[in-house]
Amino acid sequence: MVTVCSAVPGSTVNHAGADVSKTAATPVTPSLIIEPEAGADRYLKLIGGAKKQIDVNSYLLTDRAVVGALTQATARKVTVRILIAGNPYDAHQAVAQEQAEFAGTQVQMKLAAARFEGQTFDHAKYLVADPGTPAGAGILGSSNLTASGLGAGNREFDVATTDPATVAAMATVFTADWTGTAAGSGSRAQLILSSGAEGALLNLIDNAKARILIETEGVRPRAGD
User: Fold this and answer.
1) What is the pLDDT of residues 28-87, one digit of tens each?
2) At CA 48, angle to CA 20 and CA 109, rounded to 5?
3) Burial of residue 169 (number of CB atoms within 10 Å: 0-12, 13-18, 19+)
4) 220 belongs to a structural domain
């Protein structure tokens, strides 16, 4: 899971080694994308505007418009890398479908690392475009990049951001998962990451002043709790 924790920029070094803290002097307010009303437009706009690089981590990625936009981006000489879950729950046929969609294209695709197998999943859903540049932007949230996740019925919440520090953190996590290395602790200043998300979430709840609103598919205690 990858969740926005903070969008206040600080002195942050991105995965390419560039200091991105000077590209924004004031906090950048992220925007909320609510599905099914929003559809795929925000994703398609971000993909269509990318100049150099697009990194996508999606539990499921079968939406035809998104697949087409990612493939078309490579024709503009944009590097496109995609991480997908190798063991999506109750949707094992999706992996073969996803691989077939991008077969013969310039899109680079990998299955999530072997540690995300069995009862552990790479359940992240996010997209990063042009990190480390003034045009850097990202979207992350609960939407699978499928028809049902992008307008065909599911209630989903995503966040779009151009905050350099948040975009850099997303890029750092993606690169770590792409290369099978550790992301380090720096990204947790901007993102809530599993595992180990409990403390940050409890802190948000404990510091609430007036009300707490939660909309989730399910809540249950862990075994032994």
Assistant:
1) 788 999 999 999 999 999 999 999 999 999 988 889 999 999 999 999 999 999 998 877
2) 80
3) buried
4) no
Write phi, then psi, for 175 (nearest 5 degrees): -60, -40
Query: How many Cα atoms within 13 Å fall on the side-chain side of residue 151?
Result: 12
Containing structural domain, residue 109:
2-205
Amino acid 136 reads G
In this structure, is residue 81 part of a structural domain?
yes
What is d(CA 101, CA 67) in angstroms, rounded to the nearest whole number? 7
The answer to whether position 160 is within a domain reads yes
Nearest CA-CA partner of 163 in 184, 189, 135, 141: 135
Within-domain flag for 211:
no
Quote the number of domains for the chain: 1
**DSSP code for 149:** T
154-202 pLDDT, tens digit per residue, is 999 999 999 999 999 999 999 988 988 878 788 877 887 777 778 888 8
Query: What is the CATH classification number for the domain harbouring 20?
Result: 3.30.870.10
CA 157, CA 36: separation in Å to the nearest integer?
A: 9
User: 129: closest CA among 213, 190, 70?
Assistant: 70
CB count in 10 Å sphere of residue 24: 15
Q: What is the reported pTM?
A: 0.80
